[in-house]
Amino acid sequence: MADRYEYSAKVRTPLFRGAFVRVFEPEDVKNDDGTVSKVWSVTTILEKGADISAIKGAIAEAAKKLWGDKAAAMVGHAKFKNPIKDGREMANREGELYAGFEPGQITFKLSTKQRRPGLVDKLVRPIVDADGKTLVDEKNEVYEVIPSNAVHSGCYFYATLCAQAFDRSDGFGVSLKLENLQLVKPGERLGGGGAASAKDDFAPVEGTAGGDLADLLS
Fold this sequence. Notes:
Layout: E1 4-7, E2 11-12, E3 16-30, E4 36-45, H1 53-67, H2 71-75, E5 85-86, E6 106-107, E7 109-112, E8 118-120, E9 133-137, E10 142-145, E11 156-168, E12 171-185, H3 198-201, H4 213-217
Parallel strand pairs: 7-12, 8-12
Antiparallel strand pairs: 1-11, 2-11, 3-4, 3-11, 4-7, 5-6, 9-10, 11-12
């Protein structure tokens, strides 16, 4: 049987904290056929009780399009790949939770292989790089670096997405396709989504300015 896919209409998330933010430099992901795809993605962190009815509705819509009257049974199946997870599932191989995640939180990954997702700031101006370079005057092609627009894991976003129901040889379920993002406010930086710069990792070492090699090695 050939792989099958169906999509929901586009919906918007509630405000979420972003983890593993990869919206400028995509991740290389190996496909089942051995090829490699460029994937842009962000993982959401929402507090317990957050209203995700729109996301659940999109999942149900895509599932019904793909499986029809069997949708409820497929979604309830033990092997169904559900994109919505609890924060306690976001752990490494040693069982340690990744930075920013806690049990009881709602989390789901948004990703796309088709193009880099659009990213705008609170004033709906396009943000073009991780440092916050922003298009402030499209007519005259004027850009400006706005510090509050720096983009990294830990910032808060809205996103638009559509649900993709899939039935393939490697399993069945629903994934969430990232469309666009709006940066709403900065947040404390989390691990993931790219390495920190060297200047962020270190401070000047006292007593080393102008010292000779023996002094530096002592």
